[in-house]
Each structure stands twice: as structure tokens, then as C-alpha cells.
Design brief:
Elements: H1 2-9, E1 21-24, E2 30-34, E3 39-41, E4 44-47, E5 52-62, E6 65-76, E7 85-86, E8 91-93, E9 104-106, E10 115-122, E11 130-140, H2 145-194, H3 197-212
Bound molecules: 2-acetamido-2-deoxy-beta-D-glucopyranose (NAG) (5 copies).
Length: about 210
Amino acid sequence: MFSFFICFFLPFSGMCCVHALEMSTGKIPFLEAVNGSTVLLPCTYASCIGITNLYFKWEFNENGTMQKLADSVIPTDHVEPNKVNIYRERVEYVGSSKGNNISILLWNVTFGDAGVYTCFGKNPKEKGKNHSAIFTLYVVDELRVVDNTLTIIIASCVGGFIALLMAFMLIKNFTLFVLAKIEEKNKECLVTSSGIDNTENGLSGSKSTPKKA
Ligand SMILES: *[C@@H]1O[C@H](CO)[C@@H](O)[C@H](O)[C@H]1NC(C)=O
Ligand SMILES: *[C@@H]1O[C@H](CO)[C@@H](O)[C@H](O)[C@H]1NC(C)=O
Ligand SMILES: *[C@@H]1O[C@H](CO)[C@@H](O)[C@H](O)[C@H]1NC(C)=O
Ligand SMILES: *[C@@H]1O[C@H](CO)[C@@H](O)[C@H](O)[C@H]1NC(C)=O
Ligand SMILES: *[C@@H]1O[C@H](CO)[C@@H](O)[C@H](O)[C@H]1NC(C)=O
């Protein structure tokens, strides 16, 4: 009955005891790495009922067969595993039981390392239920061409916009200039036709208009 209540209310806080153990490879479970670099394959576990002798392992799906990379047993919460078995070169365990962290490092990545990695966990408290999360590694030669084309697209869009803006400003200024010239010509015509008296009349006229209105 108590566990029913826990399972009824805890989903709202994101941790239901139906799935007591949860493995996670993060919000972005894939990575693109340049060959020769060293990458972190992240994995954490969470369990709201606590762990006892949690068995975990990392596997790599190579040509359809699962190759074990590392495994060990974590005695209980916040206790480091006695010994982490490493089954493949260039793999290093960098996890920490304090952070529920069972991540591994993969050194000097080769193109053959590209593929799907599985972080697997089994908590005997849950009668042999298996839990896992996957992480995909892409290995590339250099920075991708797609990124360059995207940059070019953005750059040309911004450039095009600026060019358009400049053209618009030029046309606007030119139009204003032409309009000003036309206006100037019209003023000249008025001045020449009505003479100097016209400006004096205009000034006194503009002073007296508010009084009249
Ligand atoms: C990555 O692979 C390319 C092409 O095979 C190679 O030329 C380059 O030296 C490699 N880089 C590293 C750091 O291994
Ligand atoms: C997987 O395939 C690659 C290339 O075809 C090969 O070099 C490698 O030895 C294979 N690995 C296994 C475990 O069969
Ligand atoms: C990774 O490559 C560097 C340089 O080639 C080498 O010194 C280092 O031992 C390699 N690390 C592993 C774990 O293979
Ligand atoms: C797990 O540990 C590694 C190595 O210390 C660290 O780089 C990584 O950020 C940790 N991951 C989490 C989710 O704490
Ligand atoms: C859990 O995993 C183990 C080892 O990989 C496997 O032998 C077992 O059949 C799995 N159990 C279930 C219920 O999937």
C-alpha cells in the first residue's frame, strides 16, 4: 500500500519506484569526436530505493556483437567499487560513486570506435531487472563540412541583408537629396519672384498668426 502511494505521487517528481534503477547517458546521448581525441562516455544511475551490489557494465556493439568494455559491482550507495575490470585497451574508468557516476574515458579514438555504447545496470534488490542507456559515438576526420555550409549560409544571409540595407539607405539618401534639390529650386523660385520683403512679411506673419487664431 505504501509503495502504491509512492508510485502514485513520485512520478510528479520524476522518480517512480516502479523503475527503481535508472541509467542515464545524459540529455544529449551522442557525441561527435575527431579521431585521435579522447572522449568521455557519460553514464549515471539513480535509484530511489538505494542500491546493494549494483552490477554495471559498459558494452560496445561491434559488427552486431556486444563487446564488453568494463564492468564491476558497487557494494552500496556512495561506496567505490573494489575493482573495475577493463576488457579493452584505451578504456579508463573515471566514475565516482559519490556522484552515482560510472562514466568511462575512451583514449585516442579511432574510426573503428564509432558506434553504439550501452551502459548497463542491474540492482539485485529488484530481482534481476535490467536497465540500460545507450550512447552513440560518431568519429570524424575534421570539423564537418555541414557546419561550414551552414556558416556560409548564415554569413551570406547576413551579408545579403546588410547589402540590401545599404542599398536601401543609398536609395533613400539619394531620393532625399533629389527631393531637397527640387525643394531648393522651388524656394529659389519663390525668393526670386517675391523679393526680400517676402521673408520679412513671412516672419511677422508667423508671429501674428497665433494671436489671430
Ligand atoms: C585522423 O584521420 C585522418 C584521415 O585518416 C588522418 O589524416 C589524421 O592524421 C588522423 N588524426 C589523428 C589525430 O589521428
Ligand atoms: C568488425 O569489423 C571491422 C571491419 O569490418 C573489423 O576490422 C573488426 O575486426 C570487426 N570486429 C569484430 C569483433 O568482429
Ligand atoms: C594515446 O596516444 C598518445 C600519443 O600517441 C600516447 O602517448 C598515449 O599512450 C595513448 N594513450 C592510450 C591510453 O593509448
Ligand atoms: C562523471 O565523472 C566524469 C569524470 O570525473 C566527469 O567528467 C563527468 O562530468 C561526470 N558526469 C556527471 C554527470 O557528473
Ligand atoms: C539481464 O541481463 C543479463 C545479462 O546481460 C541476461 O542474461 C538476462 O537475460 C537479462 N534479463 C532480462 C530480464 O532481460
